[in-house]
Specification:
There is one protein chain. The chain is α+β, with helices and mostly antiparallel strands. Among the domains are: about 85-160, Muramoyl-pentapeptide Carboxypeptidase, domain 1; about 165-290, L,D-transpeptidase catalytic domain-like, CATH 2.40.440.10. The chain contains eight helices and eleven strands. The strands form two sheets. The chain has a nine-stranded mixed β-sheet. Strand 4 and strand 5 (about 200-205) form a beta hairpin. The chain is elongated, with a radius of gyration of 53 Å. The protein starts with a helix and ends with a strand. The model is unreliable at about 20-45, about 55-70 and about 165-170 (pLDDT under 50).
């Protein structure tokens, strides 16, 4: 009898243990975890794939990067500035006179500086530019001017305003030796302003063509007109000093530009404006004019 009670107690103990084990298993499955034995090491985490580091080629908004490598950036190169024009046809200044004097130093200008930028100066600048491999524009730009400065020296006062060759002054016509005289030689193509046989100033001049010749003889200044314009030819005649009818001594921009390639309509042309301006200020009505060969 006692043995049956003992067996019954053992069965109850086993039943209770099985029930407890089943409850533990149910709890473990419900939690979703794997039960580890006590004292076991922590599991080693599986390696994860590293996210790629964004590059300069990554597209905005997280798009994929370009498969090509980062392109090299070529530095932007600024184009060289175009040379700026300093002097050109029609200019009249001290700087133009310096340009002509410097060109004359190296054989590109074969006359006295006038300060006027005419066709003769254009041809001289073109000659200089061509010899130096520069564009033959005839304009004096910054490159042409700097090249000329490097090849020449600063002109002297005599180079900027050289005295005119005056063979007539050495042996002037006898009519020019007394009084105040505009002594004009067709042979030397010079005008000498003389007072009592002394040459005060001298300048280059040109005369009329064979169809409109300049008269020869002894005359006197009868009218001065500072801003005169020819009513016959509609051409400017600044600093005009009339001596015979419509013929006068006056400044000619055409003479300054073209030199002896042209001719007047009978007047005595002066090409240096500064010199005739000074002469005009000194000459009076009644002063003698002598024109001779």
């Amino acid at each position: 009898m006692r043995r049956r009670r003992t067996d019954s107690y053992a069965r109850r103990v086993r039943t209770t243990a099985v029930a407890a084990a089943g409850a533990l298993a149910l709890v473990t499955l419900t939690a979703g975890c794997k039960a580890e034995p006590a004292g076991a090491a922590e599991p080693t985490p599986l390696p994860t794939k590293a996210s790629p580091r964004p590059t300069d080629d990554a597209k905005p908004g997280g798009g994929p990067a370009s498969p090509s490598a980062t392109p090299s950036r070529t530095p932007s190169v600024r184009p060289s500035p175009q040379p700026s024009t300093l002097m050109s046809v029609g200019d009249r200044s001290k700087r133009v006179r310096e340009l002509q004097a410097r060109l004359r130093q190296i054989g590109h200008f074969d006359r006295s500086p006038t300060g006027y930028y005419g066709t003769a100066t254009v041809a001289s600048v073109q000659s200089f530019q061509g010899k130096r491999g520069l564009p033959r524009t005839g304009r004096t730009d910054t490159v042409t001017w700097e090249r000329l400065l490097a090849m020449t020296r600063k002109p002297t006062a005599k180079e900027l305003d050289p005295p005119a060759s005056t063979p007539a002054a050495a042996k002037p016509d006898a009519r020019c030796l007394k009084g105040r005289v505009l002594c004009i030689s067709k042979n030397s193509r010079t005008l000498s302003w003389m007072i009592d046989g002394r040459v005060v100033s001298s300048m280059d001049v040109r005369f009329g063509s064979q169809y409109t010749p300049t008269r020869e003889g002894t005359f006197s200044v009868y009218w001065k007109s500072r801003h005169h314009v020819s009513t016959l030819y509609d051409s400017p005649m600044p600093y005009a000093m009339f001596f015979s009818g419509g013929q006068a001594v006056h400044y000619s921009s055409d003479f300054a530009a073209r030199g002896y390639n042209g001719a007047s309509h009978g007047c005595v042309n002066v090409r240096d404006e500064g010199k005739i301006a000074s002469l005009y200020a000194q000459v009076r009505n009644g002063d003698k004019v002598v024109i001779y060969w």
